Amino acid sequence: MNTLNKTLALIALASSSAAFAATDFDTLDVDGNGAISQSEASVDAELMSQFAELDTDGNGELSKAEFSKA
Fold first, then answer.
1. Which member of 2, 48, 57, 66 lies 3.0 to 4.6 Å from 62 by CB, making a disulfide possible if both were Cys?
2. Closest of 30, 36, 34, 38 to residue 10, by C-alpha
């Protein structure tokens, strides 16, 4: 059920016109786990284009510190 809720939240965020201009860490961190996954970042094309470079520890997520370098 938790995965379903996350999926629905991502769909709602992606369908929002504001999502494409989202640059706020907390807005992009849909599941509230303190990191931005590639799935969460996918709503922001500019962030996705920098994701691999920003993910300095290579864990597939952006911490708040990594995101702040965007």
1. 66
2. 30
Q: How many CB atoms lie within 10 A of CB 9?
A: 14
Give, for 7, the enclosing helix (H) or strand (E).
helix 2-15
Question: Does residue 20 register a pLDDT over 60?
Answer: no
Tokens 């996350």 locate to 6
57, two tokens: 């520890």
Phi and psi of 36, rounded to 5°? Answer: -105, 115
* 3-class SS of residue 20: helix
The alpha carbon of 24 is separated from its chain's Cα centroid by a whole number of angstroms, namely: 9
